[in-house]
Design a protein that fits this description.
Helix content is 79%, strand content 0%. By secondary structure, it is an all-alpha fold. It starts with a helix and ends in a 7-residue tail after the last helix.
């Protein structure tokens, strides 16, 4: 049961982390809860659909259907998170001012609600589909009782951790809230880009360049609770290959460059 709970916890934590950061960053935005909840529901429904077509998905693309599917989802989330970070950099001050007006409609927030729902839906879909595939494997072994206990425990622990992170973000002043949440989202996006690259390597579509650039598994294994948390928070990889590091670094550098350009826009000619 503990093994099932740990794996489910990791997947739920990754999705809960994205949801908690987005909830904190959009505090006060009109209709944010409805749109984000819709994204969670859509992601859960998508995970169930994936479960119904597991065999067909596994046989697609010469047996690498699941890897390509997860890579696509990860890179889609990377793109949406990157867009959201840049959008928040550009419109954050406007939102801070409007959030102070009780009951006022946040025009800037409305423009990004569907994008936020899409980020949440894709994150839940990605993590939920992995949970579904894992549960199917355990169910095939006949250990259904431990499976259900681990599922409940893992979901409860993951949601609780996400809630505590949300509370922590709310304690930040509005002055630092957007910067803090943007940094976390940037690291989440970079970690997903690195894992997406690994899926493409598994599918034979990318070279690894160099395996095991370092090995920190003896000090901090990914299977441990701290390792699981850091994996979800900053994309920690105990044994990364060079291609994963390239994708991680390029994602961080690209977001920082765009962030900088939005922070200091080029002056317009008179």
């Amino acid at each position: 049961m503990f093994a099932a709970a740990l794996i489910v916890f990791r997947e739920v934590l990754e999705a809960a982390l994205i949801v908690s950061v987005i909830l904190a960053a959009t505090k006060g935005v009109h209709n944010r809860l409805r749109m984000i909840f819709s994204g969670v529901v859509a992601g859960c429904m998508g995970s169930l659909i994936v479960a119904l077509f597991t065999t067909q998905l596994s046989n697609a693309f010469s047996g690498f259907g699941q890897e390509l599917f997860h890579a696509f989802i990860m890179f889609a989330v990377v793109g949406l998170l990157s867009w959201h970070i840049i959008w928040m950099q550009r419109h954050g001050r406007e939102m801070v001012i409007e959030m102070k007006e009780v009951g006022a409609a946040v025009a800037a927030g409305k423009k990004s609600l569907f994008a936020l729902a899409a980020v949440v839906a894709l994150a839940v879909l990605r993590e939920g589909s992995e949970v579904v595939l894992f549960l199917q494997g355990m169910a095939a072994s006949g250990d259904v009782q431990n499976l259900m206990g681990g599922l409940v425990l893992g979901i409860a622990a993951g949601v609780t951790a996400g809630w505590l992170l949300y509370i922590g973000f709310l304690k930040l002043s509005l002055k630092h809230l957007f910067s803090a949440t943007n940094v976390v989202l940037m690291l989440i996006a970079a970690g997903m880009a690195a894992r997406g690259a690994d899926k493409l390597i598994q599918a034979g579509m990318l070279p690894s360049l160099y395996d095991n650039v370092w090995d920190s598994s003896a000090i901090l294994p990914e299977s441990s609770l701290p390792g699981q948390f850091l994996t979800a928070l900053v994309g920690y990889i105990a044994q990364p290959n060079a291609m994963q590091l390239v994708f991680y670094g390029v994602t961080v550098a690209g977001i920082l460059i765009l962030w900088r350009l939005q922070k200091n826009p080029a002056p317009t000619k008179a």
